[in-house]
């Protein structure tokens, strides 16, 4: 995992100024600058356009500083991490922010700067920007670095192809994380899943090769405080099973463990920040493979808690492995349980790749997630647990249907399915994330990306009373 914190320079560094300006600030700022600065900007046509970066020379041919445009005030919600996006355009050396940035904007700038240093370099050299930033005095640099490190872990796990990120490798990543922070970890794998009563996890993963056997990974950390349980879907590759996906639909299936990657990244943030809580992380890790022992459409399976599930599509396997993990989570009291999964295409149709939709019955928790997402520049959007659709997941021949026919409300029916296993009275939220940046954007290169983790982290103090 890359060390993104090396993008920060010491507080006493001899740093050049990076002025961050909107069009309304530009005239007054120019009045305080040497004449050659204004002339240079005029020749470049700089008008503080959003994301536009101009490096300004000194009279002696060196670098006087740089100017970054924020764009019109009414348009700024359309742009995230503009300061981070500027990093690659700046010469090597140390920089410090100048301009009228409030503490929230300064925190976004610092986080975006570090995230812009991420590059996935496991298989080919991937240079990161050489410019460093003196962290603004208004921000907690250690907290920003911890958040960036958690995000880097998530991105690395998602970006790694399935041949090097199967269930065993995902377990290894969880063990490394546990070792780094003194967490406990237990793993139940292969046929031992049947004896331990994880029938759905075993059934979904049993067709994979022996070295890619299914498993349930459980990590625990913390001795005091409220209890937080994170459950992440770890489908390390999804062929669709016997309901085989078309080839084009398999192209991104290495990211189908994005829920697991995101909860591990969030767990890293929580542990690095030493939040006063008791953390439990559950990851059902499988490969949904095609083989002689693959489960079939029409099968009826019995989950850990005794509920029966009719299989109408083997490509709706994520909710099955999550069902066993949520049933396990419900066996211990939790002050908040959150599941995260790259679960449905319907969620992408509804909100696109940039928003992380979530489901929650508790208005207070939902409001906290929304506020946390806005503050952390990690956009989320509440979706309904719509009770009238419960009948859509009740096939009659079994308690539940894993893939209701008709195609309507796919994200909602999947969330309703999961809620059946979360435990009565449990404060529960489910995030149906995409986990992928389809096109490069400031501080978000094309590839794996965390969604929802920063929003949850920002919400935890209020939700759990920390």
UniProtKB/TrEMBL annotation:
Matching InterPro entries: Leucine_aapep/pepB, Macro_dom-like, Peptidase_M17_C, Peptidase_M17_N_1
CDD domains: Peptidase_M17
Pfam family, one: Peptidase_M17_N_1
UniProt KW Protein biosynthesis keyword: no
Molecular function per GO: manganese ion binding; metalloaminopeptidase activity
Domain Cytosol aminopeptidase: 313-320
Family matches, as PROSITE patterns: CYTOSOL_AP (PS00631)
Keyword terms: Aminopeptidase, Hydrolase, Manganese, Protease
Keyword Protease part of the UniProt annotation: yes
A GO BP annotation: proteolysis
Superkingdom per UniProt: Bacteria
Gene Ontology CC entries for this record: cytoplasm
Coiled-coil blocks: none
Signal peptide boundaries: none
Family: Belongs to the peptidase M17 family.
PANTHER family, sorted: LEUCINE AMINOPEPTIDASE-RELATED (PTHR11963), PEPTIDASE B (PTHR11963:SF20)
Listed name of the protein: Leucyl aminopeptidase
Originating organism: Palleronia salina
């Amino acid at each position: 995992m890359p060390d993104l914190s090396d993008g920060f320079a010491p507080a006493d560094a001899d740093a050049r100024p990076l002025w961050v300006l909107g069009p309304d600030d530009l005239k007054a700022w120019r009045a305080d600058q040497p004449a050659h600065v204004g002339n240079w900007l005029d020749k470049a046509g700089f008008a503080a356009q959003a994301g536009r970066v101009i490096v300004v020379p000194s009279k002696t041919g060196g670098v006087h500083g740089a100017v970054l445009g924020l764009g019109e005030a009414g348009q700024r919600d359309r742009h995230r991490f503009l300061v981070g996006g500027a990093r690659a355009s700046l010469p090597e050396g140390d920089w410090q922010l100048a301009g009228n940035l409030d503490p929230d904007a300064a925190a976004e700038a610092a986080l975006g700067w570090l995230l812009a240093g991420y590059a996935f370099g496991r298989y080919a050299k991937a240079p990161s920007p050489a410019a460093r930033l003196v962290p603004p005095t208004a921000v907690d640099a250690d907290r920003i670095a911890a958040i960036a490190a958690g995000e880097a872990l998530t991105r690395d796990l998602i970006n790694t192809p399935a041949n090097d990120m199967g269930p065993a490798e995902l377990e290894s990543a969880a063990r490394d994380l546990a070792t780094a922070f003194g967490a406990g970890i237990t793993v139940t794998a292969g046929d031992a899943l049947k004896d331990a009563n994880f029938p759905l996890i075993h059934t979904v993963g049993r067709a994979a090769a022996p070295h890619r056997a299914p498993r349930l990974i459980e990590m625990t950390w913390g001795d005091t405080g409220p209890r937080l349980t994170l459950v992440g879907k770890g489908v390390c590759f999804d062929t669709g099973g016997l309901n085989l996906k078309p080839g084009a639909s398999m192209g991104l299936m290495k990211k189908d463990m994005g829920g697991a990657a995101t909860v591990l990244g969030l767990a890293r943030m929580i542990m690095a920040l030493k939040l006063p809580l008791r953390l439990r992380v559950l990851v059902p890790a499988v490969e949904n493979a095609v083989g002689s022992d693959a489960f079939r459409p029409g099968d009826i399976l019995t989950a850990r808690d005794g509920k029966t599930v009719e299989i109408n599509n083997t490509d709706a396997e994520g909710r099955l492995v999550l069902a066993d993990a949520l049933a396990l989570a419900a066996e211990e009291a939790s002050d908040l349980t959150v599941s995260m999964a790259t679960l449905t295409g319907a969620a992408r149709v509804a909100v696109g790749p940039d928003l992380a939709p979530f489901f929650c019955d508790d208005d207070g928790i939902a409001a906290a997630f929304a506020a946390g997402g806005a503050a952390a520049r990690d956009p989320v959007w509440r979706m309904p647990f719509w009770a009238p659709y419960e009948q859509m997941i009740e096939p009659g021949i079994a308690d539940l249907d894993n893939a209701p026919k008709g195609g309507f409300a796919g994200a909602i029916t999947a969330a309703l399915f999961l809620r059946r296993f979360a435990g009565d009275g449990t404060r529960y939220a489910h995030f149906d994330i995409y986990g992928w940046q389809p096109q490069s954007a400031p501080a978000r290169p094309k590839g794996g990306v965390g969604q929802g983790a920063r929003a949850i982290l920002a919400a935890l103090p209020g939700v759990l009373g920390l």
